[in-house]
Design brief:
By secondary structure, this protein is mainly alpha-helical. It has one domain. It is about 90% helix and about 0% strand. The chain is built from two helices and no strands. α1 packs antiparallel against α2. The chain is elongated, with a radius of gyration of 13 Å. The two termini are about 15 Å apart.
């Protein structure tokens, strides 16, 4: 599997995981968990974009 594909998969996983944490933080009224989820969600988006850029540069 190409590194770009791995980055996209990891990015999507972190995006979803972050969104779940963010929602759990909202439901439980836990601002720390909500902030952690938001940060992980954003990091996942960045990682996903890195995979997309790498794919373009491979060509």
């Amino acid at each position: 599997m190409k590194p770009s594909t791995k980055d996209k998969i990891k990015g999507t996983f972190h995006e979803v995981k972050g969104k779940v944490k963010e929602t759990a933080g909202q439901v439980t009224n836990n601002p720390d968990l909500k902030a952690e989820g938001k940060a992980e969600h954003t990091a996942g988006k960045v990682e996903k974009k890195v995979g997309q850029v790498e794919r373009v540069l491979e060509k």
